[in-house]
Amino acid sequence: MSEATLDDRGRLTLPKELRERYGDRYHIVELHDGIKLVPVAETPLDALRDEFADVEKTAEELRQGARDAAVDEAGR
Fold first, then answer.
1. Where in the numbering of this chain does the SpoVT-AbrB domain appear (predicted)?
2. What is the pLDDT of residue 35?
3. How far apart are CA 29 and CA 27, in angstroms?
4. Could you give the CA distance from residue 26 to residue 35 in angstroms, rounded to a whole number?
């Protein structure tokens, strides 16, 4: 784990190893007990394609599955 400190102007500098690994842009997500930095891909569309490359269902099949699951959950 790495540690970083804010400077007198409120800037946070990440260690070089982290910047090289994850890039220079991040979303800041506020959690109940802290914050999380989520790297932003250089090309978000390519990142989505990579993330879902192994999904074999169509968008409509995924939607229908979500609908069915919601109906099952509501019926309990």
1. 4-45
2. 94
3. 6
4. 12
